Amino acid sequence: MPVSNTLDMVKRGLTAAQIKWIALILMTVDHLGAFGFEIPVIGRYYTRLRAVGRLAMPLFLFLLVQSIRHTRSKPRFLLRLYVAGMCTELFVAATNFFLGDLFGVHSPGNILFSFFYAALYILLIEACASALRARRFAAALLPVLAGAAVTLLPAAVCEGIEGLFSGETGIRYMILRHDLLRAFLPSVWGGDYGWGLAALGAALYFARTKRRQCAVFGGFCLLCAAGAVLLPADLGPIGYTYIGSFINTFCTLSQCRMVLALPLMMLYNGRRGRGPKWLFYIYYPTHRYVISIVSHLLYPV
User: Fold this and answer.
1) CA dist 16 → 41, 46, 71, 170, 176 (Å)
2) What is the DSSP string of 147-209?
3) pTM over 0.85
């Protein structure tokens, strides 16, 4: 691209659609390393591919926050995220059940449900704050209780059902049951990046302006970098707690490269731009499986 065109783009900024395309490419690069590492030419650059891919999550989360802020119906937007996440898990369940013997069983993460929980917590916090401003203290308690329920119950229910039927069916149906439970009862602890992503999404949303959002994200990256440098590699018993899951996910030198997404966030010009609305929801599950199948066909385990 000519230097003049690049400078013009910097002056005009980037639309949400343009940032989404960039994030889509970065995510694909990341998943080439994550799901195709058995292919020698990809495995050789595994670390670099995953490092580049660290920028995708914060960019998608940044765009999610902008979408929630400008959507006409937040409940409908929340439902769309849940349905998209559910369809992704059902795709995984179907391919594992019907094609698992041919191409292996896959259990990739699902960042859509992490985005769902980020949006859900934003709605609950807003409902609680609105009730407190109106001095309706009893009503303010309801979003708090709902937040606790959606945080704790899905994982507990899934574990209970899994334990109830454990050993009664073969491995194929056990995997199917596990996949279906993840599809209909997603847990904030089980999605990609876990509760840390949901908390970061809520913090970005309530920062409101782009400048404040970038400052919040920069501070979050500094916190993660401090953890990566100062905390020991072996967390001991803490590593098996919710705090430990956050540290293991975000406080690594590799994940700290997500700070490189900050310049792209700063270039956001507040415009939506043009782009296919449902592309990400379709592309997200299918491209991961295609990469996995190609890897399996070329280098079967």
Assistant:
1) 33, 29, 14, 46, 37
2) HHHHHHHHHHHHHHHHHHHTTSS-HHHHHHHHHHHHHHS--TTTSTTHHHHHHHHHHHHHH-S
3) yes
